[in-house]
Amino acid sequence: xxxxxxxxxxxxxxxxxxxxxxxxxxxxxxxxxxxxxxxxxxxxxxxxxxxxxxxxxxxxxxxxxxxxxxxxxxxxxxxxxxxxxxxxxxxxxxxxxxxxxxxxxxxxxxxxxxxxxxxxxxxxxxxxxxxxxxxxxxxxxxxxxxxxxxxxxxxxxxxxxxxxxxxxxxxxxxxxxxxxxxxxxxxxxxxxxxxxxxxxxxxxxxxxxxxxxxxxxxxxxxxxxxxxxxxxxxxxxxxxxxxxxxxxxxxxxxxxxxxxxxxxxxxxxxxxxxxxxxxxxxxxxxxxxxxxxxxxxxxxxxxxxxxxxxxxxxxxxxxxxxxxxxxxxxxxx
Length: 333
What we know:
Layout: E1 4-10, H1 17-25, E2 34-41, H2 47-57, E3 62-67, H3 72-83, E4 88-91, E5 97-98, H4 102-113, E6 117-126, E7 129-132, E8 142-144, H5 148-157, E9 166-169, H6 170-175, H7 187-195, E10 201-213, H8 225-244, H9 252-274, H10 279-293, H11 305-310, H12 320-331
Parallel strand pairs: 1-2, 1-4, 2-3, 6-10
Antiparallel strand pairs: 4-9, 5-10, 6-7, 6-9, 8-10
Helix pairs in contact: 5-9, 7-8, 8-9, 9-10
């Protein structure tokens, strides 16, 4: 058994692979302990050809999966998981890169503490410079989830850093039936939210290991109707997952607070920053979902005060311009 399987969905990633692949192939954990599963998700450029060249050079370490139909990252990861044989699983986006000692350090902590999840810090590369991304999880210590309060905290903050900064035990993924939504964006938000329902031990290194490259084609920068619809739908899928897996009632306050923040507030702020004209198309639908599913959300003690104040807008009829002005004032944007 390899120590780790690294899964990389690739869609039209031709121009990024020469940066990504050396960072994986030169990992200090050693190629003999790794398998790299590269999934060509029906690319229309020369991605598949470049992947085959890497596989030819490293046939014992690299596996190529070619998909005829684009199913987005969720489908690519699910298929790769069915082939993975490593004790641990790591996920990397094809347009990013990692530090060369990342997986040696993460695997060492995972084996030392028998942890379900081990992660590190992430920096974001933008035109203006390189920025350390915030981390809401405890760093440089083993955290054991031993009480409902511990689980609530993980539900609220476990998404910090995303899935690509972390590794997970493969048998733990399988036993908890953790699968990605397919044919949609933001599938990792759903997967990590469901993972946080089952993590019992985790360790986060206070060290930068992952480099996120911000560019116009990134999923988080998409601001068309498909991206906004996927963004909203994935939050509704999360609610369904909490109910289906039997966690909704016990962790209701945290789930309510998280939904109101990510579905309503964060999405409105995202639209305002990138395309304010889209707010009018979605605000009524978003307000209806919040009011219908969480009619008492303004009383939620977990929400920050400014979030409770802004949630008043979901319960009031007002012009879009007034909603935007309120948002700008409350969040200083």
